[in-house]
Amino acid sequence: MSLVEVESNPKSAPMSFQKKLTFVFSLISFLGLLISTFIASYFSQNLVADSIIKSMHQRIVGLKSTIEVTYQDNLERQKQLIGNWGPQVIAEISSNESLFEKRMVTNQVTGEKQEVTLHKMNWHGQGIENHNLVDQLSKDTGAAVTVLQYSEVGLVRISTSIRKNDGLRATNTFIPKDSEVVKKLEKGETFLGRAQVLGKWYMTAYQPILKEGRLLGAFFMGQYETSYEHIKTFLRSEKILKTGYLYVLDSRGVMQSHPTLEGKSAMDLTDADGFFLNKEVISKKSGQMKYRWEVDSQDKKGKEIVEKMAIFHYFPEMDWYVVASVPMEEVNEPVVSLRNTLYLVSSVMTLFMLITTLLFGRKVNQQMEVIGSEIEQASSVLTQRSSELAHSSDVLSDSAVKQASSLHETVSSLEQIKSMVEVNLDSTQKSEKLSANMKEEAGEGAKVLERLVSSIKNITRSNENMTSSLELNNKELLQIIDVIASINQKTMVINDIVFQTKLLSFNASVEAARAGEHGKGFSIVAEEVGRLAAMSGAAAAEIRKNLEESQAKVKELVEKSQDQVADLVADSKEKINEAASITEVCHKTFQGIITEVSEVFEAVHAIAKASKEQAHGIESITIAMEQIDTGIQQISTVAKQGQVLSANLNDNAGQLHESSNELQKFIKGKNFHKAS
């Protein structure tokens, strides 16, 4: 089979593979670079903006250390100043509360005038109103000095070195009672810190003048804040990017530093959308926000709206809100420059890819022409091999059918054997359960006999204990007999004493009769003694009689009890021994039964185990036969699929030949016709 090239009309010839490849790769490269540039510029815009914002925030926060150092330095200087001079001055100040005068005083915050009553205050015996004290101290220390008197409206300046804007001393002005300075002094504590004096900020020290724990007034020394003026000057000179700037706002909304609004109230200042900027700053204290601001247009002929960003931070030491304001256009300017650079790079890279693809496409085109020729040859070989595959598939299919028939017969026989083994296994399992139950019941019987043997032994021990107790009781009864005999002996002694008493009574009666009248009383006593002796003799005789009878009865009772107990114990031992012998025989018999039942159980268990293994083996054989059957079915299916595949392979070989022609057309962009 060969190919004959036939050129068609050049005007209608399709585009060659080399040109297509160059065009597609160039287009993909251009679109990829364009998308990459867009994504890079989009994300870099946020990164650059965040970097600039972070830098602005750091510049503001960087002022914190400068402000804190300045504040602490001024505070320490005032602390030393008031510590050196305050106690000396206050010690020489006295008050004459008997002398009063009325004055018109002015509130330093609101400018409101009020009338107050003040008493006379002296220093070194002279009136403080001559200002000698404050002028001398101000000259020596370079600080502002004031003596204030406490009144119902607050602290009134009665002598001061501070001058008002008109050059006059700021006497008869007062600090209102709601001031933090007055509240601190009312507690008897010294106030140290930053405070306003007649609208100007001073680093101040107020020490209370006390009399018996009561506040009379205060001694003031302070320094005008020139250091903070230097900081404001620095902030005015700072530029952020091109036109951005820093400004300072206090809690009242007054601009402490601003290019155009310094000293003015800006609390109600709004942006182009009516948003109160400075109220938001004072409310949040620290943070950032975006707003739209109206400015002069570049041609100076009208107004335009510019989007701006403000970053702010609060410094409580001076009650300052430092704000950095910058147009968003200047923040985004580096991003625009980066985007333009990326677009330029994308264009250059697209041109480079166009040239590279053109050179690479030429090489690929040559290789694909060779591949097309090889595909044509492979399609002829594929047609031949598909015929051979069809023949082999037919042979394999016939063999699989025969093996499947034999295998089905074997599987049926195995199913019958498996059913018989399962019946045998079921019976064996039942026998195993019965043997287990017999073994358990025999074990329980043996345990009962063991308990019976134990009980008989306990009875034997109880009888022995009972015998010992009876013998002990008999011994105690014999001791009682001995006691009765001893009592009987004592009774005989009493009889002898009674006899002797009677004899003495008789002799006494004889001697009383001899005495005549003088022996009558003694005769009566002797007669009574004789009568008592007779009564004692009769009682002793009766006791002896009772003791002899009791001794005889107890002795008889002991003898009978010993005989009866001996007979009962002998009979009980004989019966208990007989029961023990019978029980021992039963126990041995049960032990033999248990041994035999255990052997039967083990044998049945071994049969059951063997039956399970036999059933498992048959089941494994059945599964293996089923797997073989499945394999044969799969072989048959594969054989049939091989027949179908060989037919499809033959068709594919024809299609491959046609595709080879189409590939040649695609590569060269010309029409080809098959010739043989």
Note the topology.
Elements: E1 2-5, H1 17-61, H2 63-92, E2 93-107, E3 113-123, E4 126-127, H3 132-141, E5 144-150, E6 154-160, E7 173-176, H4 180-186, E8 191-197, E9 200-211, E10 214-224, H5 226-237, E11 239-240, E12 244-249, E13 255-257, H6 277-284, E14 287-296, E15 303-315, E16 320-327, H7 328-515, H8 520-668, E17 672-675
Parallel strand pairs: 2-7
Antiparallel strand pairs: 1-17, 2-3, 3-4, 5-6, 5-10, 6-7, 8-9, 9-10, 11-12, 12-13, 12-16, 14-15, 15-16
Helix pairs in contact: 1-7, 7-8
Structure description:
Helix 1 crosses helix 7 (328-515) and helix 7 (328-515) runs antiparallel to helix 8 (520-668). The chain has 676 residues and is an alpha+beta fold. It folds into 3 domains: 55-65 and 230-330, Beta-Lactamase; 84-217, no CATH class; 379-494 and 546-676, Orthogonal Bundle (Helix Hairpins). A hairpin with a 6-residue loop joins strand 14 and strand 15 (303-315). It has a 9-stranded mixed beta sheet, sandwiched between helices. Strands 11, 12, 13, 14, 15 and 16 form a 6-stranded antiparallel beta sheet that branches. Strands 1-17 form a two-stranded antiparallel ribbon. Mean pLDDT is 78; it is low at 1-13 and 671-676. The chain has 8 helices and 17 strands. The longest helix has 188 residues, at 328-515. It starts with a strand and ends with a strand.
